[in-house]
Amino acid sequence: MLSGRHIIVTAGPTHEPIDPVRYLANRSSGKQGFAIAGALAALGARVTLIAGPVTLATPPDVERVDVETALQMAAAVDAALPADAAVMVAAVADWRVESAGQKIKKGADGPPTLKLVENPDILAALAKSPRRPRLVIGFAAETEHVVDHARAKLAKKGADWIVANDVSGDVMGGERNAVHVVSATGVESWADAPKDAVARRLADRIDAALADA
Description:
eight-stranded mixed β-sheet, 14 strands
């Protein structure tokens, strides 16, 4: 059981403002991250769930911190440390826009040019932090070469595991998921299952890993 363990979970998308009424976003529903937070809490962990803009109910016994942007999520993760593990499920936008102070209007010169600025890499920063949790898990939403991209992400980010899935279908917003858990010791491919079942299996794996550490 995870009694006495503190685990950070991030979930959902981020919204990056373009102007006061528009934003850049992605299709993440937050369902898998929320299910993981609930499964960890059910095993006795103290869970801090850092959630992007979603309308999901908070799982029982989970502390929730709501954020909107990638910069806010990065700050919330840092504020939640120290932790024994971090499960970074959120689909964080890679870029943000130099936001306009007023609503951008249509003009005769065509669509405006948006200047993109790279967002912080929350997973990589956490993995390299002097306050790094014992177990750092990232997620990879891919549309092709899923395992190959996950292996590359594992090496680049410095995480312990990457949980990768193919989102070319209806996984984002859907109720089921099939994942590959990629680590330095190999790849575990889990068959398609309800997201709650995936969450429970991952929580059990985290429990075992922390017990062995």
